[in-house]
What we know:
The structure is a single chain. This protein is mostly helical. The chain has one domain (3-131). The protein has helices spanning 3-27, 30-40, 50-73, 78-103, 113-131. The chain starts with a helix and ends with a helix. The mean pLDDT is 94.
Amino acid sequence: MDPERRRYIDWLLLCATFAAHVVDEASTGFLDLYNPAVAAMGLPALQFTFPVWITLLALAIAGLLILSYWVRRGTWWTVYAGYAFAFVMLANGIAHLSFSIHRRAWMSGAYTSPLLVTASLNLGIATVRRTS
């Protein structure tokens, strides 16, 4: 398969996995864990209400889907966007799994985290192949 097409498909798969991850977090009470944690770190400005949090994540997913137009066209700057998207989602997935291990209980969002890690690695690899 053409490397550009592979990267485009992997971009879309990571968008879909990110959306599933948000549903996982929303349905398992992510903010009930997140808000007290950021408050304990002295970062109350990073606390969210559910409507604000879900709206911001929906806008992020919509924005990433809009960017897929330029990914499909092979626009040069989408290489950097691909690396950034893959890295952030990889870190997100690993963090959810790590905190689950640390707490010795599944953290909100941990059910889809292995998928998030896999999809992130796929996009990262497809982006590297596109540039080599």
